[in-house]
């Protein structure tokens, strides 16, 4: 049971980390928390379902198209809703919260309350280390998530664009003095944050089917991870995501399944009590 | 407007409200009681959001804390519902105080995240502790009086709203209220002038949570059935939408918003359960283009 719970924890941890990276990117650059993050995660799942099942596409182009659409929606949200609220942190919180409720109710109206599941990439299961059988789809999700996280980190580390992102998140004004168009950068990073949520969504959707309100828990977990890792810290997201995934699944296996989702909240309280800046956080956000 | 005129208007409104139940059937009375309940919730949420600039997503959860505390005391221990509501109010206030102390020294975003988490957790605990809370089936609780009367509940709710508004009025037009607005306008400047920013925020949050607990307790004993719907994010959204549409940061705006939205919801209900979606879109447009709400629109024209 223990190795199985750990494997489950790793799979969820990678997905959580991916979703948290999106939140962290937006917090780092714009000091904005997008409360509709989970709904964009779900939207990507719905899109991939629509393209793959209703239109009969191959799952790969369906997923890419879904993430692209969510990216575009992110650009749209930033330019219409978030941009006028710069400097008024509270308004962006309220606007994105309302947006999340609107999206949830729109999904309910369009897709109905039933869980929808895009097709699995591969079938069957593997005998892991001679201990237990594990679904291939979940292993594929683990692999895909890890690859995407590695890709995000190499973009941040090795490309010109990554350099700009890191510069702006360290010191916005200095980046502006050096000729960075911060308005464009905000729009782009918000879109990328949404796209990361969407990527997590399309990877997880074949494992856990999407429902209109399933995003709430993912978003909440992503927020806890961002606080745990330290606002704006990218490594914090990966470590925090794995911790959350493992704690949740070990807790579900050995303590109580009904309270699975409570462990994350306990971690949040502990962090706020002991080390409010988070594991890798700077004092100021 | 002079003070004399103001008090005349207040008297006139109170008079109209006091006489309202005489000409109304049970259904209309029920809608009014619900309006009054949401008005308490919206007005007390506004105390935190509108006057200190902190966004709490646990206002419905605190109402749930009040409702379940009072309901469980009455059902399991045979407490008088009135006493239960008082205890529920205190427990909600205490929960608000603890969360406030925990988060508010770190700033606004942390409060929003933690309150969002808190309301989810409360939901999970209520559905899981089936033996005590009756889970999603709902907890059947006794009424506040021996003979159930909607008119009586109307007056009780009206009195509760008036008490709430008096408390809020008292706070925002006192020195404390001045501190609230100073903190909202410029935290650093307020701190430099000797305002204890954290204490001001925690105090506003505690009062607001306690008022939510009271509203929740009253509402539970009015419906006679307490369900996890009371502390849900949907309810939280409705309270937020009423405040945003009515006018955040204005004294009377949330009350107007509560009445508008609840009455509107009754008309929309005829076409199906679309009211949450409609309110969401309206609130989104209002928050984006008219951040001072309906009240602000009228003030702007004058």
Q: What order do the helices and strands come in, and which of them pair?
A:
The complex is a heterodimer of chains A (285) and B (302).
Chain A: H1 2-30, H2 37-54, H3 59-82, H4 89-111, E1 125-128, E2 132-135, H5 136-158, H6 160-170, H7 172-177, H8 182-204, H9 215-229, H10 234-254, H11 262-274
Antiparallel strand pairs in A: 1-2
Helix pairs in contact in A: 1-5, 1-6, 1-8, 1-9, 1-10, 2-3, 2-4, 2-8, 2-9, 3-8, 5-6, 5-8, 9-10, 9-11, 10-11
Chain B: H1 3-19, H2 26-52, H3 59-77, H4 81-104, H5 108-128, H6 130-133, E1 139-140, H7 150-172, H8 175-185, H9 187-192, H10 197-223, E2 225-226, H11 233-246, H12 253-268, H13 275-289, H14 293-301
Antiparallel strand pairs in B: 1-2
Helix pairs in contact in B: 2-7, 2-10, 2-11, 2-12, 3-4, 3-5, 3-10, 4-5, 4-10, 7-10, 8-10, 11-12, 11-13
Query: Which consecutive residue ranges of chain A, at least 5 long each, have pLDDT under 50?
Result: none
Q: Structural class from helices and strands of chain A?
A: mainly alpha
Query: Average pLDDT of chain B, to the nearest integer?
Result: 83
Indicate how many domains the architecture of chain A comprises.
1
Strand content of chain A: under 5%
Along the chain, the helix and strand elements of chain A come as HHHHEEHHHHHHH
- Rg of chain B over CA atoms, rounded to whole Å, is 19 Å
Order of helices and strands of chain B: HHHHHHEHHHHEHHHH
C-alpha Rg of chain A, in Å? 18 Å
What is the CATH architecture term of chain A? Answer: Orthogonal Bundle
**SS element count, helices of chain B:** 14
Could you give the distance between the termini of chain A? 40 Å
The CATH C-level class name of chain A: Mainly Alpha
Largest sheet of chain A: 2 strands, antiparallel
How are the strands of the largest sheet of chain A arranged? 1-2
Largest sheet of chain B: 2 strands, antiparallel
